[in-house]
Amino acid sequence: VIDKSGLSYQLTPMGTIIEGEWDEAMGVVNACFKALEKDCPRIGVNFKADWKPGKESRLKSKVEHVEKEVGRKLST
Question: What pTM was estimated for this model as a whole?
Answer without folding.
Answer: 0.74
